[in-house]
Every structure is written in C-alpha cells, then in structure tokens.
Amino acid sequence: MAARYRCGSCRTTSDWLHDTDVAAHRKQHRDRFHGGDAPDDEELIKGTAPMFHGGILGGRELLAILAAVLVLAFLWDLKN
Ligand SMILES: [Zn+2]
Known about the structure:
Elements: E1 2-7, E2 12-13, E3 17-18, H1 19-34, E4 42-47, H2 59-79
Antiparallel strand pairs: 1-2, 1-3, 1-4
The site of zinc ion has 7 residues, from α1.
C-alpha cells in the first residue's frame, strides 16, 4: 500500500511513499517546518501509486519483470 503525506499549512503533498516511509517523511516535515509540532490540517492520502510513474514500480522493476517473463517464455518453449 502507498500513501502521500499532505500538509495543509504548507500546502504541499509528498510523492507516493511506501507505508513504512510515510511516518518518517511526516516526522521529517514536522521537524523541519513546524519545529517538531503537528500541524492541524495534515493528512495521509492512501491509495495505489500509479505503477509506471516513478512510484512503487519504477522503470527498472518493469524491465526486470519483462526479462523474467521472456526467460520463462523461452524455457517454456524449450520444453515443448
Ligand atoms: Zn507543513
């Protein structure tokens, strides 16, 4: 699952982050811009990152998956 951190006070929204990274990003933002305090209007936008847009699944992962499929197809072809 992915999420974006949004700070309404600063009117900024992070990129899609992995669930485990959002808490660290939020703490970093609070420390850096709000002296460690929590702004009233921050929110976490949960959802699914766009797969091929620099999100969870980048170009390198896509290439790795394509290569794996090609190798499997080749092996399948050898067996038959
Ligand atoms: Zn902020």
